[in-house]
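User: Hey, my collaborator sent me this sequence without any context and asked if I could get a structure. I don't really work with proteins. Can you help?
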Amino acid sequence: MKSVADAHEAVLATAKEMLHKGLVEGTSGNISARLEDGNIVCTPSSVSYEEMVISDLVLVGPDGTVLEKTEGRSPTSEIQLHLACYRAFEDVGSVIHAHPVWATMFACAHQGVPACVDELAIYTGGDVRCAEYAMSGSPGVGENAVKALEGRGAALLANHGMVAVGPTPEKALHIVALVERTAQIAWGARALGGPVPLPQKANDDLAGVYQLMRNL
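Assistant: No problem. I've predicted the 3D structure and written it out in structure-token form, which is a compact way to encode the shape of the chain:
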């Protein structure tokens, strides 16, 4: 993001849209955006998205040090997840952690969401893997997520939810919504005998498209 103001506005608008789409409930989930100077704007802990305003957002450094906040506000409790993603992937401009119902069902079963629709392969790079379990808020959540995110735009967090990465909050949210939609489709396809995977060549070609599109 080009400026603190741009990042604040994008994070806030996307947070409210995430709630509107039913991808989180109450104060769960979190969003951040990285500035050109490496600092990060993130949603605060324990603040309702409906009531959240610009001044509630928190600015932190790449190491998590709080640089700017309103009194009484603190960074999201999952800040370690966000920082781990930014450290691992220099091209990532935004991180979203959400709890969509269908995707979280797969996460609770420790199963990935299969790339059974070509759109998912285009926007995430292939099957959405499920990371190994780690306690919420711990550094392990980020460490495990980074492994599952290698070459991907999203990953499931075992027994928890999911994480998506993208160049902007808006594009990361599109990935969250797409993973949720595909999880529902895959679940329904099981009633018809199970989802049929894409042909390997198609999957490889579409994953290549994802790599080209990742920063667009």
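In plain terms: The longest strand covers residues 161-166. You can pass these tokens on to your collaborator as they are.
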